[in-house]
Amino acid sequence: MVKIAVLVSGRGSNLQAIIYSIEAKKLNASIAIVISDVQNALALNIAGKHGIKTLFVDPNKFKTRDHFDKNIIEILENDQVSLICLAGFMRILSKTFVQQFKNRIINIHPSLLPSFPGLNVQKKALDSGVKFSGCTVHFLDEGVDTGPIISQAVVPVLDGDTVESLSERILKEEHRIYSVAIQAFIEQRFVCEGKKVIWKNEKKS
Ligand code: GAR
């Protein structure tokens, strides 16, 4: 069974979706640990309820970002995880971290990358007047939301959409495509070639 770690900072709905997929046997993995950089993140309660090991790592206890990241690297190596899933983890990870787990860290982002990297992206999508937005599962690289794209789902932007209504519609798709992408990673159904992810034959979401 492939061991994964999930890094979180907040509400944890993507974590919950991953847990449901594992419980429904749609995802052939086990979560070795859920790590949060926010002490009272709801995601930690969700993991706890499902009997998953949790850990809060306080960023304020480390002199630099690199020290914080090295501590997390040590924890993940001790747990021998094969894949690290960022699910609403709101810190930028260092080059050291990314290189340590090259092509083994994936992230879900609530826009159709490369459009709208960074924060508050549903508002940015609405303000820009795009007719479609969506979500992206991608490998983490050294940039901010610039890593090779594994899969995407398109969500229409409707007249009268608010940040909340658009976010909610996008989130539904996030919950669907993230588990599918994780399972595909486990089954090695795609490979990363430079900036591109090549699917071996087919269906990406
Ligand atoms: C999700 O919408 C996720 O895509 C986003 O944070 C939210 C976390 O929600 N992540 C990013 O913006 C990362 N750049 P959740 O805690 O309920 O899964």
What does the model show?
- With 205 residues, the protein is of the alpha/beta class.
- The chain is 35% helix and 25% strand.
- The strands form two sheets. It has a seven-stranded mixed beta sheet, with helices on one face. It has a two-stranded antiparallel sheet with strand order 8-9.
- Helix 4 (95-100) links the parallel strand 4 and strand 5 (105-109).
- Helix 1 (13-23) packs across helix 6 (163-186).
- The radius of gyration is 16 Å and the shape is globular.
Summarize the main sheet.
Answer: 7 strands, mixed
Residue share in helix: 25-40%
The quaternary structure here is single chain
How are strands sequenced across the largest beta sheet? Answer: 3-2-1-4-5-6-7
